[in-house]
What we know:
single chain, six-stranded antiparallel beta sheet
Amino acid sequence: MSDFPTPPPDFPPSTLYAPAPWPNLKAQSLCLFTTTSASTTPIDAAWYAPLEANSPFADPAKSGKFLGGLAMVMLVRYEDTPVGPYDELLWVPGRFEVPREGRVDGGEGKEEKLRVTRIYVSTRESTVNGE
C-alpha cells in the first residue's frame, strides 16, 4: 500500500489513502430487477441522495429525462481492494434520455442509458477514496 502518493492536505487523518482507479477488483454481486414507469415524473425525491436532489445531476433539463423501464437494486461484496473488503448497495431507477457522449447542446443524438442515483458503501475508506 506504500505505492500510493502522499494524500492531499485535506484528506481525513488516520484513513488509508488509496486513490482510484483500482484495477482487477474481486467481488460477488446480487442483482434484483423490477420496472419503473416514466409516468413517475418528476421521479421520487428518495431516488437521489439529499446532496444531489437539487443538483444538475437530478435536473431533467440538464442531465436527461427519466424514461423508466428496467430498474435494479444491486448488492456488491468487494473481497479484495486497496482499502480492504467492503460492501456496496446501488439503486438504478431506470433509463434516462441523455445527450450522446461529447454532445452538450441537447440537440439530436440523444441516447438512453441506465443511471445509478444512490450508492451506499460500508467503510469510511471506500467512501473517502471515491472508488
